[in-house]
Specification:
Blueprint lengths: L7 H10 L4 H14 L6 E3 L2 H16 L11 E5 L26 H8 L3 E6 L33 H8 L5 E6 L5 H7 L2 E4 L19 E6 L2 H12 L13 E4 L1 H4 L5 H17 L2 E4 L5 H27 L6 H6 L4 H10 L4 H26 L3 E5 L13 E4 L2 E4 H5 L4 H6 L3 E8 L5 E7 L5 H12 L12
Parallel strand pairs: 2-3, 2-4, 7-8, 7-9
Antiparallel strand pairs: 1-3, 4-6, 5-6, 5-12, 9-13, 10-11, 12-13
């Protein structure tokens, strides 16, 4: 049995049934992590602690103890979520010594269900970016082409899952940081509705936009992690003939890289042929309100949230000292751009522009009676490492950040849930994904739809890695 090929659901079942020991599974994953260390997916791992936890899990099973849904399964955890025994660096030099006394609330829920922390994963510094080209800890690399980015900011988690270093894990998503790596690395990722997952113990950016979320190689595994977090039952797939999917071509599909467009249109045709109802919807106005609200909200709230996090951990430095040590040039620029946001600008963004954006989405769903919106998660395949400021789309130079985060940003500002899943690969072998967005609280419906759509997608091969 190739243990690295097991999905989260399969691994949990095999350990629970005694077909494989937690220790053997953890040891196999740790060996693969060591063999593929050049992907730089992890910032920190403690092999002895992982194996000790696996042995404890095996002893509990042998003694007939009650087993949680994730019993004995190691999971990758992004390094902006507090985990006892590890530093929470946020991928930035100033926080190398930040050793929390408590687990983040989301991490604790996973551990209570029997999971084991496999390690802390690499990320875009301070979660302020989409490439994971981290100047402090080095870039995480895309398993389908290590010269390319895995996406960000949860790029290490995405790379680890894609490369079969871990069956699943969690990241955080403020503007696309779960869904972008899912698209670039050929896996699934859910941005839950705002407030569905607990945010305590996470190095923050924005209370209005931050959430943790699951990442895995199958939608069912994201649903399993979500059910652990919410204490609910995972949804069943829906009949495809019951799905009404809105296609927002304006803005979300203008423009697309040629290969992304080809794969997206082919997938839409497959949906039509299978009985799904596809409706053209106009959400072009989201661009205006997203541009007004998105960066203003994060710019203002980050200057409140980050100092509060530092004070709560009795760290011997403040916000300015942390920013002064930021290593990645693009992150330094992001903080500088946000420094001029005033409270007046923030109140307009939060009290006027964001509600207007939410009304646009609500009206679209009501008027067209759609189950979800469907669009490419990212307009381009994964760019090369080093394309931090600009990259290429169809041969033309485009700004990297705003292009990569174009389609994931508006739903994040509005507080919508979004599910990313892979649909195929480009001619050069890079994964391409689609996203389903729903109204707040429709996470279960999105996951049910994702289970259905996943069966129509072209399966991705395991990345070929030395």
């Amino acid at each position: 049995m190739d243990l690295t090929a097991l999905t989260l659901t399969e691994a949990a079942g095999a350990i629970r049934d005694g077909d494989v020991t937690a220790e053997a599974y953890a040891s196999t994953l740790l060996n693969r992590c060591a063999a593929l260390a050049h992907l730089n997916a992890f910032i920190a791992q403690d092999h002895d602690t992982v194996l000790a936890a696996a042995r404890t899990a095996d002893t509990k099973r042998r003694n007939g103890g009650a087993l949680g849904a994730l019993h004995g399964v190691p999971l990758a955890v992004k390094d902006n979520l507090d985990c006892v025994g590890y530093a929470t660096t946020g991928g930035t030099p100033a926080l190398r010594g930040n050793r929390p006394q408590d687990n983040a609330a989301a991490v604790q829920k996973l551990l209570d269900a029997g999971a084991i922390t496999l390690g802390k994963t690499n990320m875009h510094e301070m979660a302020f970016g989409v490439t994971n080209n981290n100047a402090a800890f080095g870039p995480a690399r895309n398993p389908y082409d290590p010269s390319r980015i895995p996406g960000g900011s949860s790029g290490g988690t995405g790379a680890a899952i894609s490369a079969r270093l871990a069956p699943a894990g969690i990241g955080t998503d403020t503007g696309g940081s779960v869904r972008i790596p899912a698209a670039f690395c050929g896996i699934a990722g859910l941005r839950p509705s705002l407030g569905r997952w607990p945010t305590g113990g996470i190095l923050p950016i924005s209370r209005t936009r931050d959430t943790a979320g699951p990442m895995a190689r199958a939608v069912a595994d994201c649903a399993l992690l979500d059910s652990v977090m919410t204490s609910g039952a995972p949804p069943a797939s829906r009949a495809i003939t019951t799905l009404r999917l809105g296609v927002p071509r304006h803005y979300f599909c203008e423009p697309l890289e040629t290969e992304v467009s080809r794969l997206f249109e082919a997938f839409l045709e497959r949906l039509r042929a299978s009985g799904a109802m596809l409706l053209e919807v106009d959400l072009s106005e989201v661009q205006r309100y997203n541009e007004r609200a998105g960066m203003v909200i994060t710019g203002f709230e980050s200057r409140q949230e980050i100092p509060s996090y530092l004070r709560a951990r009795d760290l011997a430095f403040g916000f300015d000292a942390l920013v002064a040590q930021i290593a990645s040039p693009d992150v330094r620029r992001m903080f500088a751009l946000r420094a001029d946001v005033t409270e007046t600008m923030y109140r307009v963004a939060l009290d006027s522009d964001r509600p207007a954006l939410q009304r646009l989405y609500a009206d679209c769903f009501t008027n067209h009676r759609v189950t979800a919106l469907i669009f490419p998660t990212v307009p381009i395949p994964a760019p090369p490492i080093g394309d931090d400021v600009t990259t290429l789309m169809n041969g033309a130079s485009v700004p990297t950040f705003s292009t990569v985060a174009r389609n994931t940003g508006p739903g994040s500002v509005a507080g919508l849930p979004g599910l990313a899943l892979p649909i195929g690969r480009t001619a050069s072998g890079l994964p391409v994904g689609i996203e389903l967005d729903g109204l707040p609280g429709s996470d279960g419906e999105l996951l049910a739809a994702g289970l259905t759509l996943e069966r129509l997608a072209d399966p991705l091969p395991v990345p070929t890695l030395p």
